[in-house]
Amino acid sequence: MTVSHSDGLDRNMTKPKVLISDKMDPNAARIFTEMGCDVDVITGETPEQLIARIGEYDGLAIRSSTKVTKAILDAATNLKVIGRAGIGVDNVDIPAASAQGVVVMNTPFGNSITTAEHAIAMMFALARQIPEANAQTQAGLWPKNGFMGVEVTGKTLGLIGAGNIGSIVASRALGLKMKVVAFDPFLTPERAVEMGVEKADLETLLAKADFITLHTPLTDQTRNILSRENIAKCKKGVRIINCARGGLVDEAALKDALDSGHVAGAALDVFETEPAKESPLFGTPNFICTPHLGASTTEAQVNVALQVAEQMADFLVTGGVTNALNMPSLSAEEAPKLRPYMALAEKLGSLVGQLAHDNLTKIAIEVEGAAAQLNQKPITAAVLAGLMKQYSQTVNMVNAPFLAKERGLDVREVRHDREGEYRTLVRVTVSTSQGERSVAGTLFGNGQPRLVEIFGIGIEADLDGDMLYIVNSDAPGFIGRIGTLLGQNTINIGTFHLGRREAGGEAVLLLSLDNPVSEDVLKEAREIQGVRVVKALKFA
Ligand SMILES: NC(=O)c1ccc[n+]([C@@H]2O[C@H](COP(=O)([O-])OP(=O)(O)OC[C@H]3O[C@@H](n4cnc5c(N)ncnc54)[C@H](O)[C@@H]3O)[C@@H](O)[C@H]2O)c1
Ligand SMILES: O=C(O)[C@H](O)COP(=O)(O)O
């Protein structure tokens, strides 16, 4: 016998079966059992062993070691939920899980304090060279004159990423009488004042900071945020700490900067390739590292284990959804009507997030015509989730409104009962340092989301997969030149959409592509005469 829940998933009346496949505090297994699940704890298996086993489970509880790939999901024919006891879900193929109807949950706050404390510990370890001093002392060298440290009091800490962990680091650093300069496109001036930090652009932060600590997810925007070029812009003698994700710092450039003395010290908890069993950085003076231990305290591991087990068991047994990254909370009646609007809203939010991500202070979500008859909250939540997913892995429709409020983003909802040019319309307008930017979309046919306006220019397009956005001066021959460039680089154009303000004025070109565009091709496109803006876009 099966029971259907409001989320549309069928659950067996037999006890749900959960596999814990990474090392997790025993409280997780206890909670699963207490809440009515059967649980197996089998860690350290190869992907092949997991593929052979996963078919029998309804839930999979993981940390960062298990890589939940499409191959594993394909074999997971009974799986309903994946729970990450921790924050980062870059080890889960979320699009593949969503396509398969598997809910992915995480525990966004359980290990934040612990990770922030690890960053502070790394800062002190660098400032006083504690690991090397310890090693030499225990080797019998008593190197009393070999280590001259620096104080942190009065120094400037550059915070890249001022979210949950970054803001805890800031509060601890302020307690240590440091000055904190923060770079985060989502940090509003009001929130910066509340946190007691100076909001800055990246260049200013690099020029001012004595210590730099990273607390962003790894995204297309943050990959190599401390690139060779940016490391060169840092103050001589800077010390760098990364307890967020490998790939945020160019490791080869860091090695060279440590060797030249431009960087006085670096501490990494995370590496581009993990487990990092070898690295050119190993053995470099003033380099220290830990094996992804940021979340490894008793307190944090109990927190995340309890939380993940409660959330997963609740979902499997009663259908309750908490901290899902790929599923909204909705009542059974509302869900079918709202679902297409939420898909549209998330795409519009993602579009403005990708195109106008700098200094966002205000966002207005307007619904018009048929959309104005519905509960607007899930539409707003979907816009905010689409927008904020550009910045954080932990955003979902449930927590996006809360996060937007916490970050001081002014969110306005407007309802127009009248119909305009379209039977139903959702418009998203953001205020950025360049002024107001607005996009709008409608539902076509059987609820198909369609973009109908971008920054005041009428254009009809589906927002799907890899896309290329170009703003240019309307002139004959331009489209041919773009087509030739993509063709020469074996990039196939799927669909082609064009809009313009007036003949000979500003025009927008939106192309859907069969494969992503490389940085080199984007660079070449920017050099074509008449081109003003070129951006690669990605939609789920
Ligand atoms: N080392 C560990 O064991 C460990 C433990 C927990 C979390 N983490 C990692 O730490 C990171 C931060 O976690 P969190 O909970 O604070 O996340 P969060 O989502 O609360 O905060 C991330 C912040 O980064 C900002 N950001 C995004 N793109 C940016 C950009 N281009 N430039 C500057 N800022 C940008 C966001 O606006 C947001 O404020 C995540 O990558 C997480 O996986 C590591
Ligand atoms: O994103 C996280 O929560 C951290 O990277 C912790 O990872 P772990 O659970 O493997 O320690």
Structure description:
This protein has four domains: 17-106 and 300-318, 3-Layer(aba) Sandwich (Rossmann fold), CATH 3.40.50.720; 111-289, Rossmann fold (3-Layer(aba) Sandwich), CATH 3.40.50; 328-463, 60s Ribosomal Protein L30, Chain: A; 464-539, ACT domain (Alpha-Beta Plaits). Helix 5 packs across helix 7 (164-175). The longest helix has 22 residues, at 334-355. The radius of gyration is 25 Å and the shape is globular. It contains 17 helices and 24 strands. With 540 residues, the protein is α/β, with parallel strands linked by helices. The chain starts with a strand and ends with a strand. It has a seven-stranded parallel beta sheet with strand order 10-9-8-11-12-13-14, sandwiched between helices. Strands 16-15-17-18-19-20 form a six-stranded mixed beta sheet, covered by helices on one side. GO terms for molecular function: NAD binding; phosphoglycerate dehydrogenase activity.
List the helices and strands and how they pair.
Elements: E1 2-4, E2 10-12, E3 17-20, H1 27-34, E4 38-41, H2 47-54, E5 59-62, H3 70-75, E6 81-84, H4 94-99, E7 103-106, H5 112-127, H6 130-138, E8 156-160, H7 164-175, E9 179-183, H8 189-195, E10 198-199, H9 202-208, E11 211-214, H10 228-233, E12 238-242, H11 251-260, E13 263-268, E14 287-289, H12 298-318, H13 334-355, E15 362-369, H14 376-388, H15 400-406, E16 410-416, E17 424-432, E18 435-444, E19 448-454, E20 457-461, E21 465-473, H16 478-488, E22 493-500, E23 506-513, H17 519-526, E24 531-539
Parallel strand pairs: 3-4, 3-5, 5-6, 6-7, 8-9, 8-11, 9-10, 11-12, 12-13, 13-14, 15-16
Antiparallel strand pairs: 1-2, 15-17, 17-18, 18-19, 19-20, 21-23, 21-24, 22-23
Residues 63-64, 86-88, 111, 292, 294-296 line the site of 3-phosphoglyceric acid.
